[in-house]
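ARCHIVE CARD
CATEGORY: sequence design from structure
SOURCE FIELD: tokenized fold
FIELD CONTENT:
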């Protein structure tokens, strides 16, 4: 079939699209977009003009998740909402996955530049959970940032929590932000971190991820969870990852809160690589298969003894190694 020649208008439209070119798509009726959300049969894609398009999915494209770049062809571009069919999936930069039911891989989102690990001051954050998110982020790879939300609940009792997180994580190079979604404090700082990249908010249910999105994007009004006293979980808990376009440029993905997070199938080396301050000791233990627990001349045990690394981080590292070796998948 002869190739259709592009009109000037079409050329302008195409050059205006800032999304990554999908190599296999040369058809001029094909447009590029980013998956806003995909849940069951609902698949919403946005294009460079921020139009949201209800899409169907051509078969055999595999799993498509929030943040994926896709090519689509309009079914009806004049309907409200516009409708289209997704015909191709672009190669991913990365894919954040977690261990779901029975250890099965569950894709969370794709093409992530930054992982914003949100914890709340109350109840006290789990350092092991923060560390597992950091390991997952380092292995994507994506740049992690830690957010301590609900800072309005700061008091004499929990002050040390903020100090501990700050001292442990800033000393190994991570940015730690303190926010209150309710009082709207720390939001400008968070906003400046997000500019120009695709970030995902992750963390336990109820820590305030959706509330932060509402602060960052005043035009939207995501339902947030009132913490139910009975279940201690948000009633309007987020159930599907959704990508929002930030007014300052960049995208922000709000993800459903978890009860727990286990990165997927990381081997020993990947776990070590995920602990940024420990990975420099790689290859320095006496035994090449050192489990870094109780062997003599373990470089990590030695670093701990010398006060070069934090006990809490080494505990997390050892626990993650033990958990990984117990995983039956
Ligand atoms: N005191 C205080 N409460 C907050 C703050 N941010 C959120 N909350 C409250 O925490 C509850 C949960 O907020 P959400 O934004 O729904 O939390 P989430 O992390 O999106 O929860 P999931 O969608 O279940 O993952 C709501 O009752 C919010 O009003 C904050 O900074 N301070
Ligand atoms: Mg939410
Ligand atoms: Zn060792």
């Amino acid at each position: 079939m002869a190739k259709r020649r592009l009109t000037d208008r079409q050329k302008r439209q195409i050059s205006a699209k800032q999304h990554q070119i999908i190599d296999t798509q040369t058809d001029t009726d094909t447009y590029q977009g980013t998956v806003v959300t995909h849940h069951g049969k609902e698949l919403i894609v946005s294009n460079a003009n921020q139009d949201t398009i209800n899409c169907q999915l051509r078969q055999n494209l595999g799993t498509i998740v929030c943040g994926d770049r896709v090519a689509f062809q309009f079914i009806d571009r004049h309907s409200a909402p516009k409708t289209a069919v997704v015909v191709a999936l672009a190669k991913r930069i990365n894919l954040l996955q977690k261990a779901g039911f029975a250890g099965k891989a569950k894709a969370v989102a794709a093409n992530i530049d930054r992982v914003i690990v949100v914890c709340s001051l109350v109840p006290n954050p789990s350092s092991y959970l923060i560390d597992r998110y950091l390991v997952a982020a380092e292995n994507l790879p994506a740049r992690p940032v830690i957010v301590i939300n609900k800072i309005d609940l700061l008091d004499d009792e929990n002050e040390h929590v903020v100090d501990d997180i700050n001292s442990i994580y800033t000393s190994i190079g991570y940015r730690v932000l303190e926010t209150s979604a309710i009082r709207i404090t720390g939001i400008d700082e968070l906003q400046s971190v997000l500019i120009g990249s695709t970030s995902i908010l992750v963390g336990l249910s109820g820590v305030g991820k959706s509330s932060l999105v509402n602060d960052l994007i005043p035009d939207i009004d995501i339902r947030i969870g009132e913490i139910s006293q009975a279940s201690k979980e948000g009633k309007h808990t987020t159930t599907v990852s959704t990508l929002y376009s930030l007014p300052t440029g960049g995208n922000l993905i709000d993800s459903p809160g978890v009860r727990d997070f286990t990165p997927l199938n990381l081997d020993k080396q990947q776990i070590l690589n995920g602990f940024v301050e420990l990975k420099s000791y790689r290859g320095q233990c006496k035994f090449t298969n050192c489990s870094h627990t109780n062997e003599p001349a373990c470089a990590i045990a030695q670093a701990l003894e010398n006060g070069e690394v934090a006990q809490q981080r080494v505990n997390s590292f050892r626990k993650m190694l033990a958990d990984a070796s117990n995983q039956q998948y």
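CARD ANNOTATION: Residues 311-326 form the longest helix (16 residues). The helical segments are 8-16, 127-139, 159-171, 187-194, 209-216, 268-274, 299-305, 311-326.
SHELF: design records, drawer C
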